[in-house]
Amino acid sequence: MSSSSVQSLPDAASQPSHGAAAAHPEAPAGVAPSGSAEPAGLICLVGMMGAGKTTVGKRLARRLGWAFVDSDRELEARLGVSIPTIFDLEGEVGFRRRESELIQELALRRGTVLATGGGAVLDPENRRALHEQGHVVYLRATVQDLWHRLRRDTTRPLLRAPDPRARIEALVRDREPLYQSVAHQVVETGRQPVERVVDALLADWPGRVHHAPANSVDPSQLPDPSYPVDPVDPVSQADPVNPVDSEGRS
After folding, report:
1. Is residue 17 in a domain?
2. 7 is a domain residue
3. Which of 18, 58, 66, 188 has the most beta carbons within 10 angstroms of its beta carbon?
């Protein structure tokens, strides 16, 4: 890896945002206005690849009349390269640094549904920012459902293993405590229409920026898993019979 190649990537924070503008005209793009008594909310979707974060997030944002931002796609748009390319040039450490910087920024947005990458919760600072600034929804799916959606997907590096289903099981087992700790709400996706998932989310959503459960664990204090993290959450070659994943990467 040459230093000139690494230096060719700009800082994501210095690049213009590709998300929708803020609903509040006096605030910077997507940032909660100072002194606002009742700012619009921020809903952050976390969960495994294949859980439906992008599909559900787009539909939820449309229902609420909010902006939708996919953190992985936003990072790619700002840098002008794909996530696999970032990994090739800067490695996992470089990617995670850029991802964390972007999450800290996106967590300040209001009137936004934010879909995070499957491995975003691995960083304690990401968990803290999401948990404190937004209403975090864990879109949970069973290993069987995830395997059903992802079994034909050849784009995800973590599934390039002798036994992809066992790999999914290991990831779910290791990440489940992180997803649970950062979430204010858990919604089962299952094999159901996306509108039903959105209905379930909205039925229990408190409708305000932050709603921490009593005696909740500080998500940043959980130990980080020791297994290799997910470097890429690319566009899914979704199984057409899965409405939750029919619109792309999740």
Report:
1. no
2. no
3. 66
Number of separate domains in the chain = 1
pLDDT tens digits in sequence order for the chain, 250 residues long: 444 444 456 666 656 666 543 333 333 334 443 333 334 699 999 999 889 999 999 999 999 999 999 998 999 999 999 877 887 788 778 888 999 999 999 999 999 999 999 999 999 999 999 999 999 999 999 999 998 888 877 666 567 678 888 988 999 999 999 999 999 999 999 888 999 999 999 998 876 433 333 334 455 555 544 333 333 333 333 333 344 443 334 3
Note down the domain range covering 187: 38-210+234-245
Helices (H), the chain: 3-7, 53-64, 71-79, 83-106, 124-133, 143-150, 164-182, 194-204
Specify the CATH number for the domain of residue 46: 3.40.50.300
Q: What is the pTM of this model?
A: 0.72
Residue 217 falls within a domain, yes or no?
no
Write the DSSP assignment of 175-240 as a string of letters: HHHHHHHH-SEEEE--SS-HHHHHHHHHHH--SSS--PPTT---GGGSPPP-SPP----------T
